Amino acid sequence: MPSDLRAVLCVHSIHKYTDEPFTALTPDTVFNISRTLLSQLLRDAAPFGVSKAYCLFALAKQAKALGANKLARFALERLATFKVPAAWQEQVDLFALSIRARPPADADELQPSCFRCQTINALLNQGGDKCTACGHPFVRSYVNFELLPLVKFTPARDITPTEAVALLRREPPPRKPSRPRAPDNPWGSDGPDVQTLSLAGDAQAAENAGILDPDEPFTKAMLDFEPTGRFTATVASREMLLTMDSSDVFIMQWSTGARPWEFYRNMLPDVPVVLCHACNHFFHEEDWELAMMDKGRCPFCRASADTSDAGSSATFPTGRGVPMSNAAPSPIN
Fold it and tell me: Where do the domains of the chain lie?
C-alpha cells in the first residue's frame, strides 16, 4: 500500500462516495480508484484508518453498474467475510441476489491492456497494480485514474542523464506512416488453394492497428521480455534515444539525488499526457487544463501553475515533452 499522498486521496474519495448522499465522482472514477486500492489492500494488511470493506462495497456497486459481473461477484464474496455497517446489509444482500442472475463475465471493453507488452489483464490483480505478464506498473491519471499509455525505460549504463536529454532533443527521423489496419478475420490466403489462420498474439494485433512499429529499435527491445511477472525496464541505447520524439518522453526528477531519474515514453502520441514536476504525477491533458482554468493549480498536489512546471507536447514552447529545466542537468554519479 503506498504510504504517500496517493493513498490518502484514494481512500478519502472512497469514503466520501460511500458515506455522502451525492458525489461528483463518475462511476468510472470510483471503479478505477477501488481497483487501484484493492490491488494493494487484498495483498497487504490495511493501514490504520483504511477500510477494506468500504473499498469492496464501492467496487461491487460500480462493477455491477458497468457490467463487470465477475468482478462484482468476487467483491461481494470478499465483502461477506467482513462485518459491514447495518445500513449496508440490505443493499449488499440485494446485490448478491441480482448479480447471480447475470452471466459470470466481465465486459471486454473494461479489461485493461498493458501498453508495454499488449497483454489483456484481469480487472483486478491482487499482486499489485501492474501487468500480470511483464510486471510493468500501471501508470494512471490522478484525476480519473484511467490507464495512461506510458512505458518506463532507462538509458544504458554508459549514458549520463545529460547525454540522454541531449540525444532526445535532437531532431528525430520522420515517422513512418501508419500501416493500414488488417481485417478482423484471422483467416488469410497465401494462394488460390491455401488458407492460413493467424494465431499471433496481442502484439501482432497492435501492429495491425498501427499502435506498434515492429521495425523500431525501442519497440523490438520493449517486446523482448520473459513473461515472469517481474518488471525489468527496457534499456534504451543511443540509437533508440535518437529515434524517439522528445514530445513523447517524460522525465521524473526527484528532490533527492539519491533517487535516479525515471524516463517514460508515451506509446500513443495521439493521447496527450501532462507531468506535474512538483509532485511527479501524470494527468490527461484535458483534466490538467480544466484544473488549471478552474483553480490555477495541480489537481493533485495543489501546486500553482508557476511552480508545478508541467510538461507535455502541447504546453512547452518548444513543442517538446522534455522539460526545459532538464536542458543541462547535473550528471548522476
Answer: 5-110, 150-172+201-326
